[in-house]
Amino acid sequence: MKRFYFAIMILLFSMMSTAAQTSAPNQSANAGGMALALARFELEMKPGTETTVVVNLDFHSIGNSTHPARIVATLNDWDITPNGQVGFYPAATRANSASSWLIYSPGEAAVMPGTVHQIRVTVSVPLDATPGDHLAALIIEQRPEQLKVAQNTRQIIVKYRMASVFYIKVAGLTRKGSFENLLAESSPNGIVVTPTLKNDGNSMIRPTASVKVLDADGKVVADIPDIEPLPVLAGTVANRSVEIDKTLAPGNYTVKYRIDFQDGHAATEGVTDLVVKPIVPRIASSGTPPKKP
Amino acid sequence: MAISSFIRVLIVASLTLAPALLTAKYALAGDVDPLPSRDAAITVNGNRLAGPNSSGQRRGGRLYLPVNAIARSLGDIITVNAQMRTIIVRRQTGTTAEFDAAREQVSENGSVVLTVSNTAAIIFTLNPDELLLPVEIVAALLDAGIRFDDAANTVIITRGSVASPIRDGAARSFGELYQIDYDYSLNRYSSFADQNLNLNAIGRIGDGRFMFVSGLSGISLNQMSLRRGTFTFDRPNGQRYAAGDLGTGTELQFLSSNIRGGEVELPFHNLRITAFGGRTFSGVYLLLDALPGQIVPTQSVVSAQNRVRYDTNIFGIYATTNSSPGRLLRPRPFKFAAGVLRFSGANRRGDLATGAFRYEGRRFRIQGDLAAGSFNGVDRDGSRINGNGTATDISATYQVRDNLSVQARYAYIGAKFLSPQAGYREPVNLKAAGISWSPKKWLSTTLNASTATRPGDPTDRNSFVTATVNISPRPGLPSFFISHTVSSSKLLKNAQFTLLTASRDFARFRLFANATRIKTIGPASLNAQFGASFRVGEHNSVEASQSVGSRGAYGGQLDWRTNGLFAGKLSLAAGAGYTTNKNAAISGFERFTASLNLPRQSSLQLSYTQTNAGPTLMLSLRGSLFRRRDAAVLSNAAASDLVSLVKVSGRVYQDINLNGQYDPGVDLPQANVQVRVDGNRYVTTDANGVYTIDAVRAGDHRVYVDLLSVRADLTLLDGDARNVTLQSRRDSVVDFRLVRTGRISGTVWFDANGNGRIDDGEEPLADIRIVAGSGRDTLTDANGRFVLADLPPGEHVILIDEKTLPEKMRVMSQSLTIKVFAGRETGETNFAITAIPAEVKRFGSKSQ
């Protein structure tokens, strides 16, 4: 066979997590000269209602390229794992899926650089929808279009997937955040603080937090005043680490992690001890001195 | 290039098909319906073709269309050469497309955009109008979208925005009422009460706009009497008529009076002639038979002071240049006016002539009024005047720089000059000058001085000098305002008034301080007030202040305001305070105010104050008894536009039964859909799918549905836009018909054995482009599957872009005509791809 055809499909899902983590609704997920806006829709709706929103796909021109790109839209379910990774799943496979409530158009299109392509998404909440958050994601994937044109040559096809995530918030929302545990440990690069947060409500919580490390005298030796952690989805537990890039001298410390779940209740402060042990110098196994770099 | 344009190019480019489109026996589309055997009607951009050679025909499974009639309808120029079997189309866009049957291709500006086969079947008739071409060739040649509507047996051809006939709406009646507003107030004090009711109406009579303003007052509702009333009527040609209580002489200062009568303004070339007549009130309550210089208050005078007496006949006429509305595109800087006035009453009478000029340049403005006349009557002192008098009033402003301007005014009123009305209408001698300077953005200063004397009495002088400094730095820094006035009058020789205010805004609160010093008679009095206001949340605020003054004066007050009750409809304010000084005990006061926003732009305000003087209750209710939705536009539009501002309305609905018209109970109205006119204005449909765009000027407009506000599974069957021509005095109705889209799915596979069936072991073909005539295209996936979505119901021609086929392969079937159903997927639309057979050369055997 004379054809030399190699296609390396690189799926970049990084923007998906960006989309889910983004805190401001006007931010966009972007990749490869394309950007989605809004990257996050939070729609408070009642059962039996319907609304149509527009997802804008902005195709930036890279260089002087005028070559169109073909994009394909699909629906997925999604969630955030306890350690903070955004996971995507086939549509209508998760318990709180709203994928079946969404229809979109067009499902496929060729877009020109320098233009904004608009995708209509209609959300229809069924009459028997249960209160709480229901999640879905509109996935935009770029498809190669010119494989045949450049056949008999080696090609690298880079495919991007972007997501615009939807929180469909059906009336009757409850938010119940609780601070379950707090761990702190030192690492070669600094301090790792891992709170365990739980949301017993039916709607996601977007808490704000701060962390302080105090020495034995009560003096603040390290802190992060404003942390906006990933949202804690309804009915989930999250234990996502916060890293403080500061190496502490050996000794005993106190770590205070203060969190406001924004659920109408007072902020909660968790306190734990941190012991930084002295670093034991590594002893070379041979008697030869180390080489100079 | 816009995406839509690109898609159009893509479609045309994608129509570069296989050189040989074979017969339809290889098509395995399960839902492929045969084309109608009867002739199909054709609409081009919404207009149905009529006459001979205006329908489509089916021949051997292909749809043929009369290309000549269609091209003409699109505005293209078509040339048919039957001998050469070529067709050249020069489109409106300037593009030239050519179909060459011998070469079996369509080219656009020299580039091949479509390769076809079976062109031998095309009959080039001697009469070009009878020439019929296959649908795919017509689409490529004319760059048009072509779709077959099965239900209507119509071929729908669109290019560009669709021009559609519109329905006539209601014709405008002779008269219309735009709005009726009311304003009622009740003021109840400890010893008396009064009520006022103002009623205003605006509307149209014929081609002009009328406005009626009235005011009633009395101590109770059933004892109200008409205090004032004015009816004005403006016509498009600049004529203006008014009757009732009027103010006259807007262009000539010495003709200004309040009269009860009528006024007519008539444009005449570049002049405007204004005449008025009626009765005015002199404001002089003296008896003419009293001795000169002697004031004789009588019972009639005292009672007259409580009501206005129209005791003087008045008539005037004047002409103004450069003021005819609509005649001058750019106003000239100079303006002149001249007129005469006669007034005659028991207290005053006179005849005067007056003139005025006005110049408005970029930096310099000046206005001057001159008047002279003969007068007889009682002046403001009660003295009798009989003789000739003159008057002049000149004022000017010069903008020295952008931040520096100076003003001056000089007015001289002769001792024997009388105006029709005494009191505030009576002119005085005046010399005034001022300067305004803003050396910095945050610093502005003014200095003004004036001296006024009564005509004929130079000793009765009022003089003042006022200087102000205003410091308004950027937000976050304190602001200051300082004002100092020195005045002198006949009774008060040296008075001084000084005011200092300072304030600073913080995130949620504001600090302020005020200080005054007043020096009139005796020692100066000082007063200082300082306080703060706090915002509590989004809707609440609290303000507290304390004042300290000379002579042991103290005062304080605390107020609370909230405006967030009942979704912002109700605002409440309540406060209390105290005052005291060394001569009086502490006295308190309370106040309460409630404001409620009511439907129909109405509002209710209730205010109650309790002081030492007793309680005071004020109630105000204002709003509209009637108001059209377009009242604001029509009330403020030029009179010449009234009859040309019409209404466009219609309905946006989902055509469930696909019969092309709205059927209540069957079709679904679409709510919250945006309908735009000319791209700028838009309205949203209501729950019944109905929209109304008010006050659209007659003429050509583009009315269209914003598809982004439509359900994602709906599309507009007849294009999203209507080019409409609106007529004056008549509304128009434009409906928009939505249909649910459907899909076509299928498989493209390599039919190794050429039997037209997907057999075991035969491989699907990925990345093959499928193109629909309506503009959609897609690629097959790894399993050879494709889905063409978002297609409106009807029949669609779909093709394979042979450029995307693997080498040395060809498609077995030519274009397929597939029926799409609303909300359904038409599956099993399969394309078989076969290898191009090797060329067979037969050689003769060598004879032995």
Account of the 3D structure:
The complex is a heterodimer of chains A (293) and B (848). Chain A has one helix and 20 strands. By secondary structure, chain A is an all-beta fold. In chain A, the strands form four sheets. In chain A, strands 1, 4, 6, 7, 9, 11 and 12 form a seven-stranded mixed beta sheet that branches. A five-stranded antiparallel beta sheet of chain A has the order 2-3-5-10-8. In chain A, strands 13, 14, 17 and 18 form a four-stranded antiparallel beta sheet that branches. The longest helix of chain A is centred in the first third of the chain and has 8 residues, at 14-21. Chain B is mainly beta. Helix content of chain B is 5%, strand content 55%. Chain B contains five helices and 58 strands. Chain B has a 26-stranded antiparallel barrel. The longest helix of chain B has 12 residues, at 3-14. Chain B is elongated.
Number of helical runs of chain B? 5
Indicate the low-confidence ranges of chain A by residue numbers.
Answer: 1-27
Mean pLDDT of chain B: 83
The computed structural class of chain A is mainly beta
Outline of chain A: flat
Radius of gyration of chain B: 42 Å
End-to-end C-alpha gap of chain A: 50 Å
Q: Which spans of chain B have pLDDT < 50 for at least 5 consecutive residues? A: 1-37, 161-165, 286-306, 324-329
Broad structural category of chain B: mainly beta
Q: Kindly estimate the percentage of residues of chain A that lie in beta strands according to DSSP.
A: over 45%
